[in-house]
Amino acid sequence: MSDIVFVRTWYPVSLPAFYNPVTSLLKPLGEKDSWTGMKTTGQLRHEKGIRLKQNKDSLYKEIVRQKKHFNKLHLPKALQKALPFKNKPKNQEKEPY
Asked: Which among 39, 15, 36, 17 has a CA at the least distance from the CA of 25?
């Protein structure tokens, strides 16, 4: 019950590198300029007029944020007495809205 067992759950597999460039362009010598490779999916969609489906999560939405309300700073009387004069809160009148 108290033994620790290590199980190797993966094994490295080496794959041979494969690279086969097209050097002949698969056409006769005079027609090599007209050779085109495989079309991309974007080119095929454009030619056939197929549009991608929009993902609703990817669309931009307007962000509505509520205005934050901050309470006034409240200092206890004992702490106000311990402060130097220049740091003591001054009596300020309330600004009219």
From this structure: 36
Which of 81, 41, 36 lies closest to 89 in space, CA to CA? 81
Q: Which of 89, 93, 62, 92 is nearest to 77 (CA)?
A: 89
Distance CA 80, CA 9 (A): 66
Q: Name the residue among 56, 36, 58 with its Cα closest to residue 47.
A: 36
Q: Hey, how many other C-beta atoms are within 10 angstroms of the C-beta on 25?
A: 14
**Quick count: other Cβ atoms within 10 Å of Cβ 14?**
5
**8-60 pLDDT, tens per residue?**
788 888 888 888 887 766 777 787 777 777 899 999 999 999 998 889 888 89
Entry pTM? 0.32
* Helix boundaries (H) for 1-97: 41-48, 77-82
